[in-house]
Amino acid sequence: MEVMNKILSGSDATNRRLEFPAGSLWAFPMPHGQNSVEFVASDIHEQQWRLKVSVRNEGRYSKPWLKGEWGDYVHQKQLKKGDRVILTMNDEENGERIYRISAERMLFGFWYSIDEQQ
């Protein structure tokens, strides 16, 4: 199930955090009183990325962010503004959630996997 499909902004690609779509928070239930949840997402090469979704405690809007090893992921995949990142989630029969992350780049009007290029 797709959790997030986001075209990266300049700050997403250059800062060590990604502005996470608030509409995707449903996939990361946070225990009462906490403002973050950590998870691991694997890429196509089965490399695991430790990520963290955080929301601010104060203010009118939750303003979620994706942090953790996001900056390392951007660096390794050589992501830039305009690339697309897709995060998916599958609930296994044993109750475990499996997250996958992938990146794509638009070339000549088509999206191509960055992961398969490496």
Describe the protein's architecture and organization.
The chain has 118 residues and is mostly beta strands. It contains 2 helices and 8 strands; from the N terminus they run E-H-E-E-E-E-H-E-E-E. The chain has helices at 10-14, 70-77; strands at residues 2-7, 18-19, 36-42, 48-54, 65-68, 84-91, 97-107, 110-113. A hairpin with a 5-residue loop joins strand 6 (84-91) and strand 7. The mean pLDDT is 92. InterPro entries: B3_DNA-bd, DNA-bd_pseudobarrel_sf. This is TF-B3 domain-containing protein. Keywords: DNA-binding, Nucleus, Transcription, Transcription regulation.
Relative helix content: 10-25%
Which structural category fits the helices and strands?
Answer: mainly beta
Mean pLDDT: 92
**SS field, number of helical segments:** 2
- The succession of helices and strands, N to C, reads EHEEEEHEEE
Query: Which stretches are poorly predicted, pLDDT < 50 over at least 5 residues?
Result: none
Distance between the termini: 25 Å
Strand residues, percent = 35-45%
- Describe the main β-sheet briefly: 8 strands, mixed
Number of strands: 8
Radius of gyration: 14 Å
Give the CA-based shape. Answer: globular
